[in-house]
């Protein structure tokens, strides 16, 4: 069996490959990356490195050849480009005769009002239309998305948010990566959609968990979107980043990440990493 992971040099992809290396022989693993030079360390460990560019479908035809199980990790592109890139990958998988696809989608993608949901919904539709056995991994919020706020809190800065009382299912990327690895190497996941979410927390609840880890009080400032944008601009962040981060806060406030049902424990075969443990691990890594 040959398993291929796209975007394997990214933050999530690298963790998925690490988890797979703990489950299957390295000669059963391949990665598809835009820049093979960045995957030199994986190649040195015996992982087959292939060139695959989502903007060059012909490269994907070659990258996906002879693959038994494919994980398409969503790109970081803006919505319209992201959808086009993902559909290129799904179409290439069909042309290459790949018999199974897993895709990292987002929470409640088919019905969500989240601003980032449309390309995920379009990709899910493309996967279904391809007629290939699949698994849709609807990932909720990566705890690492809050890393800059966590670092600020460690340094004594206040935690600033415009997410209000909205809830999200944060979990560490290692948990999402392990879930993907389990699906790729396990049985019985064909034609399943999994909502993967940690226990739902408000931003205030997340801060309270971090206070327990740091053993200190963290000032929490709840602001509106306009004030939040102004603060980010004062920090010197570029406009596209400001728009993205503010949009995420808005979407959490609107409840788009508040998905009650979670299949995480079913897929992981264990409980989701407790939030304090996950936060403690992040703090240690950054120390």
From TrEMBL:
<dbReference type="InterPro" id="IPR008030">
    <property type="entry name" value="NmrA-like"/>
</dbReference>
<dbReference type="Pfam" id="PF05368">
    <property type="entry name" value="NmrA"/>
</dbReference>
<protein>
    <submittedName>
        <fullName>SDR family oxidoreductase</fullName>
        <ecNumber>1.6.5.2</ecNumber>
    </submittedName>
</protein>
<dbReference type="GO" id="GO:0003955">
    <property type="term" value="F:NAD(P)H dehydrogenase (quinone) activity"/>
</dbReference>
<keyword id="KW-0560">Oxidoreductase</keyword>
<dbReference type="InterPro" id="IPR036291">
    <property type="entry name" value="NAD(P)-bd_dom_sf"/>
</dbReference>
<feature type="domain" description="NmrA-like">
    <location>
        <begin position="2"/>
        <end position="241"/>
    </location>
</feature>
<dbReference type="InterPro" id="IPR052718">
    <property type="entry name" value="NmrA-type_oxidoreductase"/>
</dbReference>
